[in-house]
Specification:
The complex is a heterodimer of chains A (497) and B (401). Chain A is mainly α and 497 residues long. Chain A is 56% helix and 3% strand. Chain B is of the alpha/beta class and 401 residues long. Classes of the chains: A mainly alpha (497), B alpha/beta (401).
Chain lengths: 497, 401
C-alpha cells in the first residue's frame, strides 16, 4: 500500500519536488561540504545543505555546530517529549513508573530502552545540532552502560541526558564526575555494592568491589597502558567506597547517595602520586576524578579516540598530540579540543574522505536524512529492531567498551543484508520513509544521473554507474526508479563516510 | 606445595599419540567423503566465567574456606571423578561426560597476567599474550596455514566476526539464518547489480563484504534450518541451532565461533550463575544431540578470558582472576576425564595461588588450541598459528588419542 502511494505521490508532487526538494536536497554539493556533513553529522539533509550555503564557509558551519546552544531544536524537543516521555523524567520517577512487569513491552521495564532508542534515532535524523548528536553517541560509547542491567534500565536515560549531553562540548571532568554518580553506571560497574571491608548493608556483609575502579582507569581515563597496577586498582576502588544508589528510591531522586559509614577511611595512595589522607569522605572520589581527568594519559587517549571518530581510524600523530596539548592547557575543555580537530587541515584532508565504513546507526540515519521520512513514530519504532539485527542496538552494547569504532568491524555480512533490505523498504515508502523521486527522465543513463544528483550528490564510481544503468535496463518501467534508487543506496559510494 | 591429584585419585596420566610428522598444510589423509571434514567450534563465555563454580573442586577444602556465600553447596555438585563436580545447572552435559564425549580442562590460563576483560580476550583470541601488535585471530591464522580460503569455511554466528576469526582470510558473519535473505520482487536483478558494483570497488573492505555476502546468501538458501531437537529459547540456543544446521548441511563450514554473554559476576553470583550455566548446559547438549553423527567430526571448545578471584568479594560475587576452565565436546574427544597439566591440581591454599589471590593457570590455552588443530583438524605443523611460542606435543593436554 505504502509503496503504491509513494509512487503515485512521486508523480503528483513532481513539479513541487523539482522546484523545492530537488533544488536544495538534491542539489549537487561540493565534496568537502559532503565530508563535513557526513563526519560531524549524520549526512546531508535539506536544512544542513542550505545552512552551509547561507553561512558561506565550512568553517562558519563548523563553528556554529560547536555552539549547539545557538541552534533551535524546540519543535523537535517538544515532539520527543510528547512521544517519549521517559526522556523528561527523573531517574526515580521513571524507575517507579516502569519497574513493574506489565506483559506489555511498551509499558514495562524495557519501555525506557525502546523510547530512548527512538528518541535518539529521531534526533540524529532531525536535529539541527548534528555535531552534538554525534558527540553524545561517541561519549555514550566511551562511558557505555548496558541498558538491560537492573538499575541501568532507567539510569542509562539520565546518563545520556544529564551526565553526557550537557558536557560533550564542555568540561571532561564535569562529565566524568557526573557519570561516576549516575545510578546506571553505579549498578552496571557494581560500585553501588563497593563498601569498606566487612560493611553490613541491608543484612548482608560486603567489601571492596574493584569493577568500577578498574574500568575508570582502563576505559574512562588513562587507558590500559596508563601505568597503573593491580594495587592502584584496589586503591581507586577504596576511594569510591560508599558511592552508591539509595536503598529506597523516591520519585525525585537522581539516584546517587554517598553512604559515609560505608566509606573506607584509611589513607590511600594512587600510582605513587596522588595521596589521599585518612579520615575523609566523598572528597576521596572527587580527588581521584580530578587527578585522572587532568592526567596527560587521559588527554592523549581522549584526543586519539576523537581523532579516530572524526578524522581517520589511523589518525596523524601530530594532530593527536596537538589536541592532547589543548586538552591539558584548557583543563579538558572539550569544545576547544573539538575545535582543534575540526579546524585542522587534517580534518579536511581529502585523503581521509570516505575512508570510514558507516556503522549501522550512521547508515540508517543518513538513509533517512537522504530519503526523507513522513511517519516519525513508525520510523523510529521500526529502526529500533533494525539496529539490533545490524548489531548496534542503541544503549545495548554489553561490554563497557561500547561499540567499536572500526570499519572492518562493521563491514559484515549480517548488517549488509539488513541494510540492503532496509534501503529497499525505504525506497518503497515502508517503515515511515517517504521517498519523493525527482526523476523525470526515461532513458537509463538519465534515470541513474537524476537519482545520483538527488541521493548521492557527489560523483559515482564509473563502474557503479554502468552497473546501475544495466539494472535499469533489466527492469520493467514501473519498477525502475524504486529498485535502482534502493540499489544506489547500498553501493560502496553510500556505505562510506 | 602443589597437591598432586594423582595421589588423590590414583588416575593414570593421559596417554599421548604419535608425534605429528613435520610438514606443511594438512596432514595427508584418504580423500574424505562429504560430511567428514573436521570442524572446530570456539564457544566463548564473555566476561570471565567462574571456573571454580562451574567445575567445583569439591575435594579441595580450600574452596569452601574462602567462599562462604557463593559456593556450590557441598554434595549438590554432580561428581565427575571424586574430586571435581559440575555445577548442578550443567546437568545436561553430564551424559556427554559419562559417555566419553566431553572432557574438562581445569586450571587453564594465559601467559599474560592481565585482569582486563578486553586485553585478556584479545590475547586469547589472537593467541598472543601481552603482544598487542598481533591483531590476527588464531583461527584466521589456522585458515592461512591450512590453505582454506572460502568465506563459508569460517563462520561467526553473530553480526560481526569474533576476534579469533579476524584477519587476512575472508570469513563470514551470519547473525541468524532466518534473516539472511533479500527482499523484493526484483531481488535477482538487484543481486546482480550489487555483485557487479562490489567486485569493481577499490574499497577492499567493502568489496570483500559484498562478495562474501552474496556468496554466502546463495549457499545459505540451500540449508534446511529445521530440526526436531528442542533448544532453549535463548540467544545461545538459537545461535547453536543455526550453527548445527550449517554444519549438517555440509556446505564447507570448518571453523565456527559463538558468543555467550555475560559472565562477569561481580555481584550476587548465586542468582545469576545458575541461569547462565543452565543456558550453556542445555544449549550445548541440544547442539551435540542435533549434530548426530556430525558430532564425530566436530569439536566444541568452551573458553573464557580468565577465571575469577578465588575468594568471594563483598558483594556476593567475585572479581577478575586468572586460571580458568575449558570444556571440549566432540565425538573424537577422549572425554570422561578432567585434564590437568601433569595431572596436578595447583590448589587453593593461599601459598598455591597465582599472585596470592587467583587460581594458577597451569595449562596454557595455546597448548589446548594446538592439540585441536594438530590432532583433530589435521594441521601438520600448528607453529605458525602461535607466534613467539614454542610448541611441544608433550604439553598437549591429551584430548585425543
Amino acid at each position: 500500500m505504502r509503496a503504491m502511494r509513494a509512487t503515485r505521490r512521486s508523480m503528483l508532487l513532481l513539479a513541487l519536488a523539482l522546484l523545492t526538494h530537488a533544488a536544495c536536497v538534491g542539489a549537487p554539493i561540493k565534496t568537502k561540504q559532503l565530508h563535513v556533513l557526513n563526519r560531524i553529522g549524520y549526512g546531508p539533509d535539506a536544512w544542513s545543505v542550505a545552512r552551509v550555503e547561507q553561512l558561506g564557509t565550512l568553517e562558519a558551519y563548523i563553528e556554529e555546530q560547536l555552539h549547539p546552544e545557538l541552534l533551535d531544536d524546540t519543535a523537535l524537543d517538544a515532539q520527543i517529549a510528547s512521544l517519549y516521555p521517559v526522556e523528561t523524567m527523573t531517574y526515580g520517577y521513571s524507575r517507579n513508573l516502569y519497574n513493574e512487569y506489565t506483559g506489555n513491552p511498551e509499558t514495562g521495564p524495557f519501555a525506557p530502552i525502546r523510547d530512548a532508542t527512538r528518541a535518539k534515532m529521531l534526533r540524529a535524523v532531525k536535529s539541527k545540532k548534528q555535531l552534538e548528536q554525534v558527540l553524545v553517541d561517541f561519549w555514550y560509547n566511551h562511558f557505555n552502560v548496558d541498558s538491560g542491567v537492573d538499575e541501568a534500565r532507567w539510569g542509562f536515560v539520565t546518563l545520556q541526558r544529564d551526565a553526557i549531553r550537557p558536557n560533550v562540548l564542555g568540561s571532561f571532568e564535569t562529565m566524568l564526575k557526573a557519570t561516576a554518580k549516575n545510578p546506571g553506571m553505579l549498578d552496571y560497574l557494581d560500585n553501588s555494592l563497593n563498601f569498606k571491608e566487612g560493611f553490613v548493608y541491608l543484612g548482608a556483609t560486603y567489601g571492596i568491589n574493584e569493577n568500577y575502579g578498574r574500568e575508570l582507569l582502563e576505559l574512562h581515563t588513562l587507558g590500559v597502558d596508563g601505568g597503573y597496577t593491580q594495587a592502584d586498582v584496589r586503591e581507586v576502588a577504596r576511594a569510591f567506597t560508599g558511592w552508591t544508589i539509595p536503598a529506597f528510591i523516591s520519585t525525585t531522586t537522581n539516584g546517587f547517595q554517598f553512604l559515609s559509614q560505608a566509606h573506607d577511611r584509611a589513607e590511600k595512595n594512587i600510582m605513587g602520586v596522588l595521596n589521599l589522607p585518612a579520615n575523609r569522605n566523598l572528597i576521596d572520589g572527587d580527588d581521584v576524578i580530578h587527578f585522572l581527568a587532568t592526567h596527560p594519559k587521559t588527554a592523549e587517549r581522549v584526543s586519539r579516540k576523537l581523532c579516530q571518530r572524526f578524522v581517520s581510524e589511523t589518525p596523524p600523530e601530530p594532530l593527536v598530540q596537538a589536541a592532547a596539548q589543548v586538552f591539558l592547557a584548557t583543563n579538558g575543555d572539550l569544545r576547544e579540543v573539538m575545535r582543534t580537530i575540526l579546524l585542522s587541515p587534517d580534518f579536511l584532508n581529502v585523503a581521509y574522505f570516505g575512508t570510514k565504513v558507516k556503522r549501522p546507526f550512521v547508515y540508517v540515519a543518513s538513509l533517512a536524512r537522504g530519503v526523507g521520512i513522513d511517519d516519525d513514530a513508525l520510523f523510529a519504532h521500526e529502526m529500533d529492531g533494525r539496529l539490533q539485527t545490524m548489531g548496534e542496538g542503541l544503549f545495548r552494547a554489553g561490554p563497557p567498551t561500547g561499540y567499536p569504532d572500526s570499519s572492518r568491524y562493521w563491514a559484515g555480512e549480517g548488517p549488509f543484508v539488513v541494510g540492503i533490505n532496509l534501503a529497499w523498504s525505504a525506497m518503497h515508502g515502508q517503515v515511515g520513509f517517504n521517498p519523493v523521486f525527482a526523476v523525470t527522465a526515461t532513458a537509463p543513463d538519465q534515470i541513474v544521473e537524476q537519482l545520483r544528483v538527488q541521493y548521492l550528490r557527489v560523483a559515482l564510481e564509473p563502474s557503479t554507474r554502468t552497473a546501475l544503468q544495466t539494472l535499469v535496463q533489466s527492469l520493467p518501467a514501473p519498477a525502475q526508479i524504486e529498485e535502482t534508487a534502493a540499489t544506489l543506496l547500498t553501493t560502496p559510494d553510500f556505505l562510506v563516510h | 606445595m602443589a597437591m598432586s591429584r594423582r595421589d588423590f585419585l590414583m588416575t593414570a596420566t593421559a596417554s599421548f599419540g604419535a608425534l605429528a610428522v613435520p610438514g606443511v598444510l594438512l596432514r595427508a589423509r584418504p580423500a574424505r567423503a562429504a560430511g567428514t571434514d573436521p570442524v572446530v567450534v570456539a564457544l566463548y563465555l564473555r566476561g570471565g566465567a567462574d571456573a571454580l563454580n562451574l567445575v567445583v573442586p569439591h575435594g579441595d577444602a580450600g574452596y569452601y574456606a574462602v567462599r562462604p556465600t557463593i559456593r556450590v553447596t557441598a554434595g549438590t555438585e554432580i561428581d565427575l571423578d571424586g574430586f571435581f563436580g559440575f555445577h548442578p545447572s550443567l546437568a545436561p552435559l553430564h551424559p556427554f561426560y559419562q559417555n566419553g564425549k566431553l572432557a574438562v580442562l581445569h586450571a587453564c590460563g594465559s601467559a599474560s597476567g592481565s585482569r582486563s576483560h578486553f586485553d585478556a580476550q584479545d590475547f586469547m583470541e589472537f593467541a598472543a599474550p601481552d603482544d598487542k601488535a598481533i591483531q590476527v585471530g588464531w583461527l584466521n591464522r589456522f585458515l592461512t596455514a591450512a590453505g582454506t580460503t572460502a568465506p563459508i569455511n569460517a563462520v561467526t554466528i553473530e553480526n560481526q566476526p569474533v576476534k579469533a576469526l579476524v584477519g587476512p582470510v575472508a570469513t563470514t558473519a551470519i547473525p541468524a539464518l532466518s534473516r539472511f535473505s533479500l527482499n523484493g520482487t526484483y531481488k535477482t536483478e538487484r543481486r546482480q547489480a550489487i555483485q557487479t558494483i562490489s567486485s569493481a570497488t577499490a574499497n577492499s573492505v567493502l568489496s570483500a563484504m559484498g562478495a562474501n555476502t552474496l556468496g554466502v546468501l546463495d549457499l545459505v538458501q540451500t540449508v534446511n534450518a529445521t530440526t526436531n531437537v528442542v533448544y532453549p529459547v535463548t540467544k545461545l540456543g538459537s545461535s547453536l541451532k543455526d550453527l548445527a544446521a550449517l554444519i549438517k548441511a555440509d556446505i564447507g563450514v570448518r571453523v565456527a565461533a559463538v558468543n555467550h554473554a555475560s559472565w562477569d559476576h561481580h555481584a550476587n553470583e548465586t542468582t545469576a550463575l545458575p541461569v547462565m550455566a543452565g543456558d550453556l548446559g542445555s544449549s550445548l547438549a541440544a547442539f551435540a544431540t542435533d549434530l548426530g553423527s556430525d558430532l564425530d567430526r566436530t569439536v566444541v571448545l568452551v573458553m573464557s578470558e580468565f577465571g575469577r578471584r578465588v575468594a568471594e568479594n563483598g558483594a556476593h560475587g567475585c572479581d577478575h582472576g586468572h586460571g580458568g576452565v575449558m570444556l571440549a565436546l566432540g565425538g573424537a574427544v577422549q572425554g570422561g576425564q578432567v585434564l590437568l597439566r601433569d595431572d596436578i591440581w595447583p590448589g587453593l591454599a593461599p601459598a598455591q595461588l597465582y599472585q596470592s589471590i587467583d587460581l594458577a593457570g597451569t595449562t596454557d590455552f595455546r597448548d589446548v588450541f594446538a592439540e585441536v588443530l594438530d590432532r583433530h583438524m589435521g594441521l601438520n605443523d600448528p607453529s605458525p598459528v602461535f607466534p613467539n611460542y614454542v610448541l611441544d606435543t608433550q604439553r598437549y593436554p591429551g584430548l585425543f588419542t
